[in-house]
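=== RUN LOG ===
request id: a7f3
mode: sequence -> structure
chains: 1
length: 238
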Amino acid sequence: MRARHVPRIILLTHLLALKKRLYPSRGFTLVELLVVITIILVLAGVITPVGRGMMARSRTINCSTNLRQIGTATMLYAAENNMTLPQTSHERGGKSWTLTLHAILQPYSDETLTFKCSEDEDRHRDRTYVLNDFLTKEPSGADHLNFSILAKINRPESTFMFAEAAVSQTGDHFHFAPYYGGKIPPGAFEKQVATAAHGEKANYLFTDGHVETLTRKETQSRLAEKNSRFVDPSGGIP
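=== RESULT ===
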């Protein structure tokens, strides 16, 4: 009868003490620790490549954003200059498109125009992107190939305007005309343009203002097309 009047707190204390005696606590065994460590290592092995992939993807997107900014500045310049595209340091006057676009962008935006891709580790150059030689007034001395005016480019969505420079390229443009015409060997192309700047991909700004991320194989396929306009707006047709 007295047990009924024992405070519940005392009963609970006795029960906990009994449980502790019957089921004594113990630490982790060596096997259990090894299992936990193995699980952590497996998860790290899965998560690390995913994280690296996400960072690489982020840098590729950042690069394409840079090119879109360059494209916007180029179109603003063209609109104020009779639809003529910016030129290179080889043209008369020696004013590079980088200086031209910096100047034309200032009245329209406070953002800094970025000419260097975050993936570009070359410390000896201040720009990653190069202008398509075919879009200059006198490409490599070929006076007849003047596509510096947008109206002369029949399919601007097919011809790229800016690309990422290869490691060996330090100028503000590349040279293809008139050495190859409309048929440019992939090997010669890759000496001046980085076709795998982001893993096996690279970004291109086309003359109509859109940006495409192409794999190395896709770039080579575009170069190999009959009457390709990927580089030469004329498609190699005189």
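=== NOTES ===
Helices lie at 2-5, 8-22, 30-80, 97-105, 186-190, 216-224.
Strands lie at 129-131, 160-164, 201-206, 211-215.
=== END ===
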